[in-house]
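Per-record layout

source: Streptacidiphilus jiangxiensis
name: Major Facilitator Superfamily protein
length: 419
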Amino acid sequence: MALSESTPTPAPAEQSAAADAAGSRPTRGLLPLLFAGNSAMYALYVGVGGILLPLQIEKIAPHDKVAMLGLVAGVSAVFATVFNPVAGALSDRSGRRNPWILGGGLLAVPAMLLLGAVNSVLLVAIAWCLGQAVMNVYQAAITSVIPDRVPVARRGTASAAVGLGVPIGSILGVLVANGFSGHFATGYLVLGLIVAAVAVLFTSLTKETRRPPKAPATFGEQVRAFADSLKAHDFRWAFIGRALLVLGYFGVSGYQLYVLQDHISLPHGMSATAAAAILTPVSSVAMVVSIAVCGPLSDKVDRRKLFVGISATASGLAVLIPISSPTFAGMLLFSVVNGLAFGCFFAVDNALVTLVLPKAEDAARDMGVLNVANAGPQIVAPFVASVLVSAGGYNLLFAAGGALAVLGALAIRPIRSVR
Protein backbone atom coordinates (compact mmCIF):
# COMPACT_ATOMS: atom_id res chain seq x y z
CA MET A 1 0.00 0.00 0.00
CA ALA A 2 1.35 3.44 -0.90
CA LEU A 3 2.01 5.95 1.82
CA SER A 4 -0.48 8.80 2.01
CA GLU A 5 -1.15 11.72 4.28
CA SER A 6 -3.53 9.54 6.29
CA THR A 7 -1.00 6.73 6.64
CA PRO A 8 1.61 7.62 9.27
CA THR A 9 5.19 6.68 8.56
CA PRO A 10 6.32 3.95 10.97
CA ALA A 11 8.71 5.01 13.67
CA PRO A 12 12.32 3.84 13.35
CA ALA A 13 11.77 1.44 16.25
CA GLU A 14 8.84 -0.18 14.43
CA GLN A 15 10.92 -0.51 11.26
CA SER A 16 13.75 -2.02 13.25
CA ALA A 17 11.48 -4.54 14.89
CA ALA A 18 10.05 -5.57 11.55
CA ALA A 19 13.46 -5.88 10.02
CA ASP A 20 14.77 -7.92 12.93
CA ALA A 21 11.78 -10.22 12.79
CA ALA A 22 12.42 -10.85 9.12
CA GLY A 23 16.16 -11.16 9.39
CA SER A 24 17.01 -12.38 12.88
CA ARG A 25 18.04 -15.76 11.49
CA PRO A 26 19.89 -14.95 8.26
CA THR A 27 20.97 -17.79 6.00
CA ARG A 28 24.31 -19.29 7.00
CA GLY A 29 26.97 -17.81 4.77
CA LEU A 30 24.70 -15.01 3.55
CA LEU A 31 27.28 -12.25 3.92
CA PRO A 32 29.96 -13.98 1.78
CA LEU A 33 27.30 -14.62 -0.86
CA LEU A 34 26.21 -10.97 -0.78
CA PHE A 35 29.85 -10.06 -1.24
CA ALA A 36 30.15 -12.40 -4.24
CA GLY A 37 26.88 -11.20 -5.75
CA ASN A 38 27.86 -7.54 -5.54
CA SER A 39 31.42 -8.22 -6.72
CA ALA A 40 30.10 -9.83 -9.90
CA MET A 41 27.71 -6.94 -10.48
CA TYR A 42 30.38 -4.26 -10.09
CA ALA A 43 32.83 -6.28 -12.21
CA LEU A 44 30.40 -5.97 -15.10
CA TYR A 45 29.54 -2.33 -14.43
CA VAL A 46 33.17 -1.23 -14.16
CA GLY A 47 34.60 -3.52 -16.84
CA VAL A 48 31.97 -2.50 -19.38
CA GLY A 49 31.37 1.13 -18.42
CA GLY A 50 34.95 2.00 -17.55
CA ILE A 51 37.00 0.16 -20.19
CA LEU A 52 35.23 -1.86 -22.88
CA LEU A 53 32.47 0.59 -23.75
CA PRO A 54 34.80 3.64 -24.06
CA LEU A 55 37.22 1.61 -26.19
CA GLN A 56 34.42 0.34 -28.41
CA ILE A 57 33.01 3.83 -28.91
CA GLU A 58 36.47 5.24 -29.55
CA LYS A 59 36.94 2.64 -32.28
CA ILE A 60 33.59 3.50 -33.88
CA ALA A 61 33.74 7.31 -33.51
CA PRO A 62 37.30 8.38 -32.59
CA HIS A 63 36.75 12.10 -33.20
CA ASP A 64 33.51 12.34 -31.20
CA LYS A 65 34.30 9.84 -28.45
CA VAL A 66 33.59 12.15 -25.49
CA ALA A 67 30.17 13.22 -26.76
CA MET A 68 29.23 9.75 -27.99
CA LEU A 69 30.21 8.11 -24.70
CA GLY A 70 28.13 10.69 -22.86
CA LEU A 71 25.17 10.00 -25.14
CA VAL A 72 25.34 6.20 -24.82
CA ALA A 73 25.97 6.23 -21.07
CA GLY A 74 23.23 8.76 -20.44
CA VAL A 75 20.53 7.12 -22.52
CA SER A 76 21.29 3.65 -21.16
CA ALA A 77 21.14 4.94 -17.60
CA VAL A 78 17.51 5.93 -18.23
CA PHE A 79 16.81 2.22 -18.41
CA ALA A 80 18.62 1.71 -15.14
CA THR A 81 16.49 4.41 -13.54
CA VAL A 82 13.24 2.89 -14.78
CA PHE A 83 13.96 -0.79 -14.27
CA ASN A 84 15.41 -0.61 -10.77
CA PRO A 85 12.34 0.59 -8.84
CA VAL A 86 9.96 -1.30 -11.14
CA ALA A 87 11.85 -4.55 -10.58
CA GLY A 88 11.93 -3.83 -6.85
CA ALA A 89 8.16 -3.35 -6.79
CA LEU A 90 7.65 -6.57 -8.76
CA SER A 91 9.79 -8.57 -6.34
CA ASP A 92 7.86 -7.01 -3.43
CA ARG A 93 4.63 -8.10 -5.09
CA SER A 94 5.90 -11.65 -5.65
CA GLY A 95 7.23 -11.95 -2.10
CA ARG A 96 10.51 -13.33 -3.49
CA ARG A 97 14.01 -12.05 -4.28
CA ASN A 98 15.91 -15.12 -5.51
CA PRO A 99 13.98 -15.61 -8.79
CA TRP A 100 14.68 -12.01 -9.78
CA ILE A 101 18.36 -12.34 -8.90
CA LEU A 102 18.60 -15.51 -10.97
CA GLY A 103 16.62 -14.15 -13.91
CA GLY A 104 18.57 -10.90 -14.11
CA GLY A 105 21.90 -12.73 -13.77
CA LEU A 106 21.15 -15.26 -16.51
CA LEU A 107 19.86 -12.59 -18.90
CA ALA A 108 23.17 -10.73 -18.55
CA VAL A 109 24.75 -13.32 -20.86
CA PRO A 110 22.64 -12.68 -24.00
CA ALA A 111 22.74 -8.93 -23.29
CA MET A 112 26.55 -8.97 -23.26
CA LEU A 113 26.65 -11.18 -26.36
CA LEU A 114 24.55 -8.61 -28.19
CA LEU A 115 26.71 -5.72 -27.00
CA GLY A 116 29.84 -7.44 -28.29
CA ALA A 117 28.30 -8.09 -31.69
CA VAL A 118 27.25 -4.56 -32.69
CA ASN A 119 29.37 -1.99 -34.54
CA SER A 120 27.54 1.34 -34.56
CA VAL A 121 26.93 3.91 -31.82
CA LEU A 122 23.15 3.50 -32.15
CA LEU A 123 23.30 -0.28 -31.77
CA VAL A 124 25.79 0.01 -28.91
CA ALA A 125 23.33 2.31 -27.13
CA ILE A 126 20.43 -0.11 -27.66
CA ALA A 127 22.46 -3.13 -26.51
CA TRP A 128 23.77 -1.37 -23.40
CA CYS A 129 20.23 -0.20 -22.60
CA LEU A 130 19.19 -3.86 -22.51
CA GLY A 131 22.26 -4.67 -20.42
CA GLN A 132 21.39 -1.94 -17.93
CA ALA A 133 17.80 -3.17 -17.77
CA VAL A 134 18.62 -6.78 -16.87
CA MET A 135 21.41 -5.80 -14.48
CA ASN A 136 19.09 -3.49 -12.59
CA VAL A 137 16.55 -6.28 -12.21
CA TYR A 138 19.38 -8.21 -10.57
CA GLN A 139 20.55 -5.22 -8.53
CA ALA A 140 17.10 -4.27 -7.22
CA ALA A 141 16.56 -7.76 -5.85
CA ILE A 142 20.00 -8.35 -4.34
CA THR A 143 20.02 -4.88 -2.74
CA SER A 144 16.82 -5.75 -0.90
CA VAL A 145 18.33 -8.82 0.76
CA ILE A 146 19.88 -6.73 3.56
CA PRO A 147 16.64 -5.14 4.86
CA ASP A 148 14.86 -8.49 4.33
CA ARG A 149 17.24 -10.87 6.08
CA VAL A 150 19.81 -8.96 8.16
CA PRO A 151 19.00 -7.65 11.68
CA VAL A 152 19.58 -3.97 12.33
CA ALA A 153 22.48 -4.66 14.73
CA ARG A 154 24.43 -6.28 11.88
CA ARG A 155 23.55 -3.80 9.12
CA GLY A 156 26.95 -2.09 9.24
CA THR A 157 28.78 -5.40 8.89
CA ALA A 158 26.43 -6.51 6.11
CA SER A 159 26.87 -3.16 4.39
CA ALA A 160 30.63 -3.65 4.60
CA ALA A 161 30.29 -7.07 2.94
CA VAL A 162 28.28 -5.48 0.15
CA GLY A 163 30.68 -2.54 -0.03
CA LEU A 164 33.66 -4.86 -0.42
CA GLY A 165 32.08 -5.98 -3.66
CA VAL A 166 32.81 -2.56 -5.12
CA PRO A 167 36.65 -2.63 -4.95
CA ILE A 168 36.98 -6.38 -5.54
CA GLY A 169 34.49 -6.27 -8.39
CA SER A 170 36.23 -3.23 -9.83
CA ILE A 171 39.58 -5.02 -9.84
CA LEU A 172 38.07 -8.08 -11.47
CA GLY A 173 36.20 -6.02 -14.05
CA VAL A 174 39.23 -3.94 -15.02
CA LEU A 175 41.50 -6.98 -15.24
CA VAL A 176 39.02 -8.83 -17.48
CA ALA A 177 38.39 -5.76 -19.62
CA ASN A 178 42.09 -4.94 -19.93
CA GLY A 179 42.86 -8.55 -20.82
CA PHE A 180 40.28 -8.51 -23.61
CA SER A 181 40.67 -4.87 -24.65
CA GLY A 182 41.33 -5.96 -28.22
CA HIS A 183 38.48 -8.48 -28.26
CA PHE A 184 35.33 -6.70 -27.10
CA ALA A 185 32.97 -9.61 -27.70
CA THR A 186 34.97 -12.02 -25.53
CA GLY A 187 35.40 -9.48 -22.75
CA TYR A 188 31.69 -8.72 -22.64
CA LEU A 189 30.81 -12.43 -22.64
CA VAL A 190 33.21 -13.25 -19.79
CA LEU A 191 31.73 -10.50 -17.61
CA GLY A 192 28.20 -11.68 -18.37
CA LEU A 193 29.10 -15.27 -17.51
CA ILE A 194 30.58 -14.17 -14.17
CA VAL A 195 27.28 -12.51 -13.19
CA ALA A 196 25.26 -15.53 -14.33
CA ALA A 197 27.45 -17.99 -12.44
CA VAL A 198 27.25 -16.00 -9.20
CA ALA A 199 23.47 -15.60 -9.58
CA VAL A 200 23.14 -19.40 -9.81
CA LEU A 201 25.44 -19.83 -6.80
CA PHE A 202 23.60 -17.24 -4.69
CA THR A 203 20.12 -18.58 -5.35
CA SER A 204 21.24 -22.20 -4.89
CA LEU A 205 22.84 -21.63 -1.49
CA THR A 206 20.46 -19.11 0.09
CA LYS A 207 17.00 -20.01 1.29
CA GLU A 208 14.40 -17.32 1.61
CA THR A 209 11.11 -17.34 3.44
CA ARG A 210 8.45 -16.33 0.98
CA ARG A 211 6.58 -13.26 2.13
CA PRO A 212 2.85 -12.90 1.44
CA PRO A 213 2.49 -11.70 -2.18
CA LYS A 214 1.14 -8.19 -2.59
CA ALA A 215 -1.92 -7.36 -4.66
CA PRO A 216 -1.23 -6.13 -8.22
CA ALA A 217 -1.08 -2.37 -8.58
CA THR A 218 -1.81 -0.26 -11.62
CA PHE A 219 0.98 1.75 -13.24
CA GLY A 220 -0.49 4.96 -11.84
CA GLU A 221 -0.58 3.49 -8.34
CA GLN A 222 3.07 2.44 -8.65
CA VAL A 223 4.09 5.92 -9.80
CA ARG A 224 2.24 7.46 -6.84
CA ALA A 225 3.84 4.94 -4.48
CA PHE A 226 7.33 5.88 -5.71
CA ALA A 227 6.53 9.57 -5.22
CA ASP A 228 5.04 8.93 -1.78
CA SER A 229 8.25 7.23 -0.67
CA LEU A 230 10.09 10.51 -1.15
CA LYS A 231 7.61 12.32 1.09
CA ALA A 232 9.28 10.70 4.10
CA HIS A 233 11.68 13.36 5.41
CA ASP A 234 14.74 11.23 6.21
CA PHE A 235 14.33 9.00 3.16
CA ARG A 236 14.19 12.07 0.92
CA TRP A 237 17.41 13.53 2.30
CA ALA A 238 19.17 10.16 2.05
CA PHE A 239 18.08 10.09 -1.60
CA ILE A 240 19.42 13.60 -2.26
CA GLY A 241 22.73 12.93 -0.50
CA ARG A 242 23.38 9.71 -2.40
CA ALA A 243 22.38 11.31 -5.72
CA LEU A 244 24.87 14.15 -5.29
CA LEU A 245 27.68 11.81 -4.26
CA VAL A 246 27.06 9.45 -7.17
CA LEU A 247 26.82 12.34 -9.64
CA GLY A 248 30.21 13.65 -8.52
CA TYR A 249 31.77 10.19 -8.54
CA PHE A 250 30.54 9.05 -11.95
CA GLY A 251 31.16 12.42 -13.52
CA VAL A 252 34.87 11.80 -12.94
CA SER A 253 35.26 8.01 -12.93
CA GLY A 254 33.15 7.50 -16.05
CA TYR A 255 35.77 9.39 -18.04
CA GLN A 256 38.86 7.90 -16.37
CA LEU A 257 40.13 6.26 -19.56
CA TYR A 258 39.84 9.48 -21.54
CA VAL A 259 41.41 11.44 -18.65
CA LEU A 260 44.41 9.11 -18.80
CA GLN A 261 44.57 9.35 -22.59
CA ASP A 262 44.18 13.10 -22.99
CA HIS A 263 45.05 14.83 -19.70
CA ILE A 264 47.51 12.89 -17.56
CA SER A 265 51.24 12.65 -18.31
CA LEU A 266 51.88 8.91 -18.26
CA PRO A 267 55.33 7.29 -18.02
CA HIS A 268 56.91 6.51 -21.36
CA GLY A 269 55.52 3.34 -22.87
CA MET A 270 52.51 3.07 -20.53
CA SER A 271 49.11 2.92 -22.25
CA ALA A 272 45.95 4.38 -20.77
CA THR A 273 44.40 0.93 -20.32
CA ALA A 274 47.54 -0.30 -18.55
CA ALA A 275 47.45 2.75 -16.28
CA ALA A 276 43.78 2.06 -15.47
CA ALA A 277 44.70 -1.55 -14.66
CA ILE A 278 47.14 -0.21 -12.05
CA LEU A 279 45.05 2.64 -10.64
CA THR A 280 41.90 0.59 -10.12
CA PRO A 281 43.53 -2.06 -7.89
CA VAL A 282 45.32 0.69 -5.93
CA SER A 283 42.02 2.47 -5.32
CA SER A 284 40.34 -0.84 -4.56
CA VAL A 285 42.88 -1.85 -1.90
CA ALA A 286 42.34 1.51 -0.22
CA MET A 287 38.60 0.92 -0.38
CA VAL A 288 38.96 -2.55 1.16
CA VAL A 289 40.93 -1.14 4.09
CA SER A 290 38.42 1.65 4.62
CA ILE A 291 35.41 -0.67 4.34
CA ALA A 292 36.89 -3.24 6.73
CA VAL A 293 37.42 -0.53 9.35
CA CYS A 294 34.41 1.75 8.87
CA GLY A 295 31.62 -0.82 8.52
CA PRO A 296 32.09 -2.64 11.85
CA LEU A 297 33.17 0.61 13.55
CA SER A 298 29.89 2.27 12.56
CA ASP A 299 28.06 -0.63 14.25
CA LYS A 300 30.20 -0.29 17.37
CA VAL A 301 29.72 3.45 17.84
CA ASP A 302 26.19 3.39 16.35
CA ARG A 303 26.97 6.34 14.07
CA ARG A 304 26.22 6.40 10.32
CA LYS A 305 25.94 10.07 9.31
CA LEU A 306 29.37 10.86 10.73
CA PHE A 307 31.09 8.33 8.47
CA VAL A 308 29.16 9.31 5.35
CA GLY A 309 29.99 12.95 5.99
CA ILE A 310 33.69 12.26 6.46
CA SER A 311 33.83 10.15 3.32
CA ALA A 312 32.09 12.73 1.15
CA THR A 313 34.30 15.55 2.42
CA ALA A 314 37.46 13.51 1.80
CA SER A 315 36.35 12.66 -1.73
CA GLY A 316 35.76 16.35 -2.35
CA LEU A 317 39.30 17.19 -1.25
CA ALA A 318 40.79 14.31 -3.24
CA VAL A 319 40.02 15.94 -6.58
CA LEU A 320 42.47 18.73 -5.78
CA ILE A 321 45.34 16.26 -6.27
CA PRO A 322 45.02 15.62 -10.04
CA ILE A 323 44.20 19.30 -10.59
CA SER A 324 47.47 20.40 -8.99
CA SER A 325 49.48 17.42 -10.27
CA PRO A 326 48.21 15.98 -13.59
CA THR A 327 50.76 13.17 -13.53
CA PHE A 328 50.59 9.42 -13.03
CA ALA A 329 51.98 9.88 -9.50
CA GLY A 330 49.23 12.40 -8.82
CA MET A 331 46.62 9.97 -10.09
CA LEU A 332 48.06 7.26 -7.84
CA LEU A 333 47.68 9.49 -4.79
CA PHE A 334 44.21 10.53 -5.92
CA SER A 335 43.26 6.86 -6.27
CA VAL A 336 44.38 6.13 -2.71
CA VAL A 337 42.57 9.07 -1.10
CA ASN A 338 39.45 8.63 -3.22
CA GLY A 339 39.46 4.90 -2.49
CA LEU A 340 39.61 5.51 1.26
CA ALA A 341 36.81 8.08 1.00
CA PHE A 342 34.42 5.98 -1.06
CA GLY A 343 35.25 2.84 0.87
CA CYS A 344 33.97 4.57 3.98
CA PHE A 345 30.89 5.71 2.07
CA PHE A 346 30.03 2.28 0.67
CA ALA A 347 30.62 0.64 4.06
CA VAL A 348 28.01 2.64 5.92
CA ASP A 349 25.65 4.23 3.39
CA ASN A 350 23.71 1.02 2.75
CA ALA A 351 23.27 0.62 6.49
CA LEU A 352 22.09 4.22 6.79
CA VAL A 353 19.51 4.01 4.04
CA THR A 354 18.02 0.74 5.31
CA LEU A 355 17.31 2.54 8.58
CA VAL A 356 15.27 5.31 6.91
CA LEU A 357 13.02 3.18 4.69
CA PRO A 358 9.42 4.45 4.96
CA LYS A 359 7.83 0.98 5.26
CA ALA A 360 9.48 -2.36 6.00
CA GLU A 361 7.01 -4.31 3.86
CA ASP A 362 7.89 -2.15 0.84
CA ALA A 363 11.65 -2.55 1.32
CA ALA A 364 12.48 -3.61 -2.24
CA ARG A 365 10.31 -0.93 -3.79
CA ASP A 366 11.78 1.79 -1.61
CA MET A 367 15.33 0.51 -2.08
CA GLY A 368 14.55 0.58 -5.79
CA VAL A 369 13.44 4.20 -5.48
CA LEU A 370 16.63 4.97 -3.60
CA ASN A 371 18.64 3.17 -6.27
CA VAL A 372 17.33 5.79 -8.67
CA ALA A 373 19.81 7.98 -6.82
CA ASN A 374 22.46 5.61 -8.19
CA ALA A 375 21.14 5.38 -11.73
CA GLY A 376 19.59 8.83 -12.16
CA PRO A 377 22.84 10.77 -11.73
CA GLN A 378 24.43 8.44 -14.26
CA ILE A 379 21.92 9.79 -16.77
CA VAL A 380 23.01 13.35 -16.05
CA ALA A 381 26.72 12.74 -15.40
CA PRO A 382 27.84 11.86 -18.96
CA PHE A 383 26.08 14.86 -20.48
CA VAL A 384 27.29 17.23 -17.77
CA ALA A 385 30.82 15.80 -17.92
CA SER A 386 31.06 16.17 -21.70
CA VAL A 387 29.90 19.81 -21.42
CA LEU A 388 32.39 20.53 -18.62
CA VAL A 389 35.28 18.95 -20.52
CA SER A 390 34.39 20.90 -23.64
CA ALA A 391 34.05 24.16 -21.70
CA GLY A 392 36.99 24.00 -19.29
CA GLY A 393 38.85 20.73 -19.71
CA TYR A 394 39.31 17.92 -17.24
CA ASN A 395 40.33 20.22 -14.38
CA LEU A 396 36.83 21.70 -14.40
CA LEU A 397 35.42 18.17 -14.37
CA PHE A 398 37.48 17.26 -11.30
CA ALA A 399 36.49 20.47 -9.50
CA ALA A 400 32.79 19.92 -10.18
CA GLY A 401 33.02 16.33 -8.97
CA GLY A 402 34.57 17.44 -5.70
CA ALA A 403 31.98 20.16 -5.15
CA LEU A 404 29.13 17.70 -5.67
CA ALA A 405 30.66 15.29 -3.15
CA VAL A 406 30.80 18.01 -0.50
CA LEU A 407 27.17 18.94 -1.21
CA GLY A 408 26.30 15.27 -0.78
CA ALA A 409 27.87 15.33 2.67
CA LEU A 410 25.85 18.39 3.66
CA ALA A 411 22.63 16.80 2.40
CA ILE A 412 22.63 14.06 5.05
CA ARG A 413 22.76 16.53 7.95
CA PRO A 414 18.94 17.02 8.06
CA ILE A 415 18.32 13.28 8.63
CA ARG A 416 16.77 12.98 12.08
CA SER A 417 16.27 9.28 12.85
CA VAL A 418 19.87 8.14 12.32
CA ARG A 419 22.95 9.41 14.13
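summary: The radius of gyration is 20 Å. Residues 12-207+218-411 form a domain with the Growth Hormone; Chain: A; fold (CATH 1.20.1250.20).
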